[in-house]
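2024-03-11 09:14:02 INFO receiving multi-entity request
2024-03-11 09:14:02 INFO entity count = two
2024-03-11 09:14:03 INFO echoing inputs for audit
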Amino acid sequence: MVEITPDAIVFWKLGPFSLNATIVFTWLVMVLVVLISWLATRKLKVEPPLSRWQNLLEIIITYIRDQIREITLQDSDRYLPFLGTLFLFISVSNLLSIIPGYYPPTASLSTTAALAVCVFFSVPIYGIAQQGLVGYLKHYSQPSIFMVPFHIIGEISRTLSLAVRLFGNIMSGTMIIAILLSITPLFVPIILQVLGLLIGLVQAYIFAILATVYIASATRNYEGKEQSNKEDLKGGILND
Amino acid sequence: MTSIDTIGVASIVISGMTMAIGSIGPAIGEAWGLSRALSAIAQQPDEANTITRTLFVGLAMIESIAIYCFVISIILIFANPFWNYVVAKGG
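2024-03-11 09:21:47 INFO inference complete, emitting structure
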């Protein structure tokens, strides 16, 4: 029997609480990310002979900051902790799936739903912090007051699609490998595993990018947006 | 046919049809989006970064439709609630 979710694999059970594979591997990923970050940032240096771990982390952080700055057109430091953590957690938990015996926690709908709910709540939090309560609520009725229910439906459905997209992609990867192992056990699963690594990284990127886009749409004030649109238009005309 | 046969046949047939019909739309959409993005990059190579990022996000959103279909068909095959109900009732 193929398990469609690591929730079904229970290691240890005590009364109503059960310790399943999702929780165990989530803790493993958390410990790994925190430990590596702590070891790498223990002796930070500014002078040229940098440690290779510091170089690695600096490349990742710089890349994330550039991406956030390009999308939000704002200072990235405010969003870096949340979005960077999302990206690092999802990508590490997807990439570790080459290790035999490891079930990616993102292949469980519980994990991805939890992450999507974090994004769902972070959007109003960042929006209210940036624009104030009235300014944030005003954009619900932006074209007209009748759009309010559609905005609310949109917020819920995009949260759902964030969760199901990540879950479906990662679960399908493990599922296809499990099915192929029973049909053609030699070589073919390896190729699909490589593809699964690529998909895992792309999905982590997309999850973080979509979260950035949602937060940016709630925090960007409209004057700034129109201005940047005009600049884009001007640039396009100049390029032509 | 008993109810367990009906549910089994219906689940398998419908899960196949879900994938077959549900992947047509996203396939056409992704191909269309990709071809437009490629011609946009050919016209304006300087904007390749922005176009590629937008393309990835758009492709992921289109692809999520196909993924919904996939999740539905996987649920129908491996975690069918009606099947479990009938089996629990004893066939």
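2024-03-11 09:21:48 INFO post-check: Chain B touches chain A at residues 44, 46, 50, 53, 56-57, 60-61, 63-64, 67-68, 70-71, 74-75, 78-79 (CB under 8 Å).
2024-03-11 09:21:48 INFO post-check: Chain B is about 90% helix and 0% strand.
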